[in-house]
Amino acid sequence: MRRAIFPGSFDPLTLGHYDIIKRGITLFDELIIAIGINSDKKYMFSLEERQRFIENAFKDEPKIKVLTYQGLTVDFCKEIKAEFILRGLRNPGDFEFEKAIAHTNRKLSEIETVFLLTSSGKSYISSSIVRDVIRNGGDVTGLVPDTVKIMP
């Protein structure tokens, strides 16, 4: 079985994430959406809300599981016996950042990182942009899946 994780904070889940996940499930037998918990980070949405957004978006997809974790991603991969890390790339800056992490992860655990380019129509979307739109009362339609319910 080819098991991969797609790690992130998903604060909130965006259409960019959704794009990578939908395309990623065609490559793996199981894809675990791994919500990282970082106690130093202040999130807009609670862990429960973020988990619910993802579970609702993929409720009809049996190849997807949603789990949470703390600590090193490679340690979580070992714990759940995942052989791959899936990451999305939006731009050259993402590539340089993700490349350094992938090399480090490979050195720590020999885990393979698989990169997918975000679809061109979604490459401008980031969680930080979505949070800024929300904070300023903007409409996030077209930036997040319908399962991401933003309360005014």
UniProtKB/TrEMBL annotation:
What sequence ranges are listed for the domain Cytidyltransferase-like? 5-132
The cofactors required by this protein are: Mg(2+)
* Residues engaged in binding substrate: 9, 41, 73, 87
Major subcellular site: cytoplasm
Family stated for the protein in its record: Belongs to the bacterial CoaD family.
- Subunit structure, interactors included: Homohexamer.
Assigned keywords, A-Z: ATP-binding, Coenzyme A biosynthesis, Cytoplasm, Magnesium, Nucleotide-binding, Nucleotidyltransferase, Transferase
Q: Where does ATP bind?
A: 9-10, 17, 88-90, 98, 122-128
Q: What is the lineage of its organism?
A: Bacteria, Pseudomonadati, Bacteroidota, Flavobacteriia, Flavobacteriales
E.C. number(s) listed in UniProt: 2.7.7.3
| Known role | Reversibly transfers an adenylyl group from ATP to 4'-phosphopantetheine, yielding dephospho-CoA (dPCoA) and pyrophosphate.
Give the source species.
Croceitalea vernalis
Q: In which pathway does it act?
A: Cofactor biosynthesis; coenzyme A biosynthesis; CoA from (R)-pantothenate: step 4/5
Q: List the coiled-coil residues.
A: none
InterPro entries given for it?
Answer: Cyt_trans-like, PPAT, Rossmann-like_a/b/a_fold
* Name of protein: Phosphopantetheine adenylyltransferase
Q: Does the keyword Lipid biosynthesis apply?
A: no
Organism domain of life:
Bacteria
Where, per UniProt, does this protein localize? Cytoplasm
Identify the residue position(s) of the site Transition state stabilizer.
Answer: 17
**Catalysis performed (reactions):** (R)-4'-phosphopantetheine + ATP + H(+) = 3'-dephospho-CoA + diphosphate
Q: Which Gene3D superfamilies match?
A: HUPs
List, in alphabetical order, the Gene Ontology terms for molecular function in this entry.
Answer: pantetheine-phosphate adenylyltransferase activity
